[in-house]
Amino acid sequence: CAAFTGLVIGLISGFFRAADAVLMRVMDAWMSFPAIILAMALAISLGASIWTELIALTVIFTPFTARVIRSRVLGIAGRAYIGAARVSGMSKWKILVVHVFPNVLPLALVQVVILSAAAMLVDGAMSFLGLGIAPPTPTWGNMIAEGRSYLVQAPWLVIAPGVTIMVCVFLLNLIGSSLRIAVDARARTLSEMQRLRTRRPSGS
């Protein structure tokens, strides 16, 4: 959900300059709140449930995705083929859907992977504090919270879910970094191809 809402906000903010100032100031104010404190406040206000956690994760991570997508859209909006589409009479919304959206979609998918790692940590913290998904629904955070009572007798009840969270977060970050490198390389290649197409022949 955070990736989707951030994608929509980033597209609109990056392509429609009139909306950019307002949306980015809202995102800046949004990001000024500590993530875990904001999640805890929502959980306390709405009650511990899977829907509350989903809302909390969306609220926390939407601004980060929006800023990343906006940055990419600003770069795309200045390219020659976008100017050609505008000159041809294509509407802004059609340009956004046809030309801009396909170019930022790979980056949005990278954000999904990266945010999944961060969301796993927030979920573990909220569940450990009793503010996330309530038992008997099993989560790694719940397992750690329940296992701490038996830390001396059965330490693996805490160690196993803790190590699992660490490994999953590490792997997701590794995958996200690899995907980001691939997406950035693809963007540079497409930009270079577009530059070569639009460059005038020497002597003309």
Which terms summarize this structure?
204 residues, mainly alpha, MetI-like fold, 8 helices, 0% strand, cell membrane, BP-dependent_transpt_permease, MetI-like_sf, membrane, transmembrane helix
Strand and helix layout:
Blueprint (H helix, E strand, L loop, with lengths): L1 H14 L1 H15 L3 H12 L3 H28 L2 H8 L4 H37 L11 H8 L8 H43 L6
Helix pairs in contact: 1-2, 1-4, 1-6, 2-4, 3-4, 4-6, 6-7, 6-8, 7-8
Give an account of the 3D structure.
With 204 residues, the protein is mainly α. It has a single domain, classed as MetI-like fold. Helix content is 81%, strand content 0%. It has helices at 2-15, 17-31, 35-46, 50-77, 80-87, 92-128, 140-147, 156-198. Helix 1 (2-15) runs parallel beside helix 4. The longest helix has 43 residues, at 156-198. It is elongated and about 70 Å long. The model has no long low-confidence stretch (mean pLDDT 82).
CATH class: Mainly Alpha
Using DSSP, what is the number of strands?
0
Rg computed from alpha carbons, rounded to a whole number of angstroms: 22 Å
Overall residue-averaged pLDDT value: 82
The main β sheet shows up as: none
Indicate the low-confidence ranges by residue numbers: none
User: What is the CATH architecture descriptor?
Assistant: Orthogonal Bundle
Domain tally? 1
CATH topology: MetI-like fold
Assign the structural class, choosing from mainly alpha, mainly beta, alpha/beta, alpha+beta, or little secondary structure.
mainly alpha
- Our measurement of the CA-to-CA distance between the termini, rounded to an integer number of angstroms, reads 51 Å
Q: Report the CATH superfamily.
A: MetI-like
Q: What best-fitting shape do the alpha-carbon axes yield?
A: elongated
Determine the strand fraction and express it as a percent band: under 5%
What's the helix count?
A: 8
Percent helix: over 70%
In N-to-C order, the SSE pattern is HHHHHHHH
